[in-house]
Predict the structure.
Amino acid sequence: MDEIMIRSFKSDLGFLDGATLMITGGTGSFGKMLTRTLLDRANLNRLIIFSRDELKQYEMEKSFSGHAKFESLRFFIGDVRDRNRLDMALRGVDYVIHAAALKHVPIAEYNPFECIKTNIFGAQNLAEAAIWCGVKKIIALSTDKAASPINLYGASKLASDKIFVAANSLGGSQDFSCSVVRYGNVLGSRGSVVPFFQRLVAEGSDHLPVTDMRMTRFWITLRQGVDFVLSNLDMMQGGEIFIPKIPSMKISDMARSLAPGMEIREVGIRPGEKLHEQMITRDDGRQTIALEDRYIITPQFNFWTDDYYMDHQASRVAEDFDYASDTNTEWLDDARFQELLKII
């Protein structure tokens, strides 16, 4: 099978033995997969799910109630906008994986203040509260839309990324570090185009709507995303932005693969939407190093030298390097996409 299909970011989670970890936004697709992975593979003292939706927490608690390690789970109602609640929730926490965000591009365009309160002020609240409570590490989830953003969601996540990178200089003598993970669209996640197209097919629609026939996106499975985040939580030194090497695919080709023979109608790009996505701009390329399965944008601040990564066979990318979905060297064709559908 092609390397694209078998690439795994799975790592040993022994470093989490006896630790307490909190997931913000933990009731989403990513949070639930991450929770399952941690319960199955790690030996945590406590795993805290922090989110603001009581119904989703109730449903998630029920779904995990039969797990052998269920007793380690804790559910905290709270919002990253509320600094005081974060101060309470983070007491005794060693690691945080920050997945809470407002992520819908058009909704963010029409509700800018709400997007800023969660994605930017929430990031600041979390970084400050984590330092105050003695957290050791934060991994924050970002998005390809944060690279050279044209929409508010991407701009807010770029600001969030900057906050977490800069927070590394605020911990003083504490054992504290923050890093960021940036990846593309998640196949099969809630809100993804794949279940949307599948639902239209199941409902008997006579066509599939595509915003632009030329549009391309990076694609990663939910399992790959979770494993990638955990592997970076282990290796991070502080201030890095980690980007996985993943394939691209045209949205129109994806639609044809999901519903061969069905009409595809071009409906126009939505507000704030890009034709193609970048994960590393040419300017960021000057700070980028490459490992076998990922790129790392190293911090411009002198938190550390990159000797650690160079000792792990990292290499510097070319001076004019960028990483975009339309110029990517790895692509999903129909056969590979169908194999991914079976996996997810």
Observations:
- The chain has one domain: 3-343.
- Residues 1-5 have pLDDT under 50 and may be disordered.
